[in-house]
Input
Amino acid sequence: MSSSLTTTIEQQNRPGEGMFTGTDAKRSDIQGLRAVAVIFVVLYHAGLPLPAGFAGVDVFFVISGFVITGQIQRMGERGRFSFSAFYARRVRRLLPAMVVMLLVVVLLSLLFQSPLDAQPATASTALAAVLLVGNLQILGTSGDYFAAAAETNPLLHVWSLSVEEQFYLVFPLLLVAVGKLAGARRRILALCLISLISAASFALSVWWSFVDGRIGGHPAADLAFYTAPTRVWEFGAGAVLALWVTSRRTAHPRPSRWAPTGLGAAGLVTLLVLHLTVDRTTPWPGTAALLPVLATVLLILAGTIGRNRITRLLASTPLRVTGDLSYSIYLWHWPMIVFAAVLWPDPPPTVTLVAVLVSLLLAVLSYRYVEQPLRHGRFALPRVYLGGAVSAAVVVLIAVTAPAAGAQGIPDAAGYAQQRDLPTYGREKNCLIHDRAYDAAELTRCTDVVPADRGWVMLAGDSHADALSTGLIEADRRLGLSTQYATGASCVFSRTAAANHEFDCAAMASDQLDRAVSGDDPPSLVVVSSWALHRYRNDQTWPEPLRPALEELTQAGVPVLYVMDVPSFATEAMHEQGVCRGGLATWTCGRSQSGVLSYQAAARDAEFATVSSIPGVAVYDPWSRFCDGTTCSPLVDGQLAYYDYNHLNRIGSASLGADLESAIAGILKP
Output
C-alpha cells in the first residue's frame, strides 16, 4: 500500500480525534471492527480454515445499524436532517465503487463464463444489484448460499449489499416518523419500537431457518438467509445500542475501571466460540447468529464507554486502514476468487492467494480513485442523483445486452442455448415430480399408452431416470410397448427412501413395486436409473440401497434393465459448471475422458459391481455414446445433448433410443 494512501486514511482517523466518543464521530475502533468482519469473509471465501467466516457479514449489519442510527440522531438533534441529503450520501458512499465492480465483472464474464448458463446468471445478478434486489435475484436462481450453484456466481456477495440498502431505504423513514410523532419522548419510543421489530424479525429468522419446507416456492432456510425481514434484527441490535448510548450520554455514567476491558474481552471470546461451534452446516441465521451479533455489540459498547486494550487494538493502524478499505475489499475479493476458479479448475492454494492479492490491489485503486473522490467531493444534490441514475442505467444496459452478445460472439452458442432447454418427455408432461406432494394417480397419468400393446415398461428412479424418458418411450413404441414414466426428483427407488421435502419418495417407490410384483398386470420390464455419482459421494455404500427393490422385482419374475449413469462434466472443485465452459476468450465444450473419470470412476465401478451382481438385472452403459476413449463430449451430431452438467435433455435422451430398443428387445425376446 502506498504511503500517501496510508497518510490519507491516517488523517481521517487520528487517535486523539474521536476514537472512543460514543456515536459522535468516526470511531477508529469501529473501523477496526469492519476490518475484522471483512477479514473473516475473505479468509472463509479463500478456503482457509475459518469455519464461520461467513458471519463477518452479520458483523457488518450490526455496525451499519449502530452507525446509521447515530448519524440520524446527531443530524436530527442539530436540525439538519434531510432525507434528500441522507440518501445522496448513501448514493455517493456505495454506488460508484459498486458500479465499477459490476461493470468489470460483467465484462470479465463475457470473456470467461459460458453464455449458456453462468454468464447470463452473472448479468442478471448485476442488474438486480443495481436495482437493490440482488438478494432476491440470488434467492430465486442460485438459492442455497453454500451450494455449488451459488459459488459459481461472481456476484453472489451482492446479496448482503442489497439487504443493507433495503434497510437504508426504510429505517430512516421509521426513525424520523417516530421522532416527529413522539416529541420529547421520541428516543424511548424509538428504542421500544425497534426492539419489538427486532424481536419479531429474530423470531421469523429462527422459524424459517429451522423449518423443513418451502414458502412461496422457496426453501424456508434460503428465505431466512437472504431476505431483509429475517436480517432486520441484526441491524436493530446496532440501532438499539446507538439509541441507548445517546440516551445515556447526558447522564455522565461512570463505568467501573474494568468494564470496558471486560466487555471487549467478552466480545472476543464470543467470536472464538462462534468459530468453534458454527460452520456451513449450521442453520443460518437461526439462533447461532446471536453469537456474531452479541460479539459486535459488546465490542462496540466497550469502545463507547471507555478506553481499553481491546478497542486500542481494533483502532491500531493496520486494522484502521483495512477497515477504511473494507467496502472495496468486500466488493472485489469474491469476483477474483471465482474467476480464478473458472480459469484454473481445481486451483491450488497459491492461485487463490494470488486472486486475493489482486482483489486487494483493485480495492486500493477503487478506494483511492473512485470511492473517496466521489464520496468527499463537492456535488450538488441534483448532480448526485443524476450521476447515480446514469451509472445505474449504464449497468442495466450492459447487463441486459451482455447475454445476447456472449451467445452471438461464439459459433453455435446461440443454437446450443435453445437445444439445452429442450425438455425430456417426462419433464414436458410434468411427470418428474419435485414440487408437489405425491399422488398415486400420477402413475396412471404419466403413462404413454400404445394401442393393442404387447405389454408395458415401468421407468423408476430420480431425475436421471427421467432423462431416459424420451429415448425409452420412442424405443417402447417401436416395440409395441406402453411406458409408465413417472419419476421423483432426488428419490431413491426404495420402499424406505427418504422424502424430498414434501414429496414422499418411499410412497411412490412402494406403489411402483406393488404394481410390479403383486398387481394384476405386472410390467414386462422395469428400467431403473439414478444419479450415481452424487449418491456415491454422499454415501459410500451406494448403490446398495437399491438392492432390496431390484431383488424384489427379479424374485417376482420381473426383469430389470439398469441404465448406468452418463458422464458428468463437472466436479465439486469446478463448482459444477455446465458442459460448455468459458466465454469469448476460453470457450470449450467437453472434457478429457481421464478428467471425467478422475471424479466419476469410483462411482461407476461401485454402481456396476452392485447391479451386475443381482441375478435377473441386465445392465446398459451409455458411456460410449459420449466418450470415445480420449474425450467426452456433450454433443450428439453437432447438437447439445445435455440440460446441465449431468442431465440429458430431449436430444441426449433420444440419442439413446436405438440402444435402449436393442437392449429391451434382447431381454424380452421370445
About this structure: Residues 1-24 have pLDDT under 50 and may be disordered. The two ends are 81 Å apart (CA to CA).
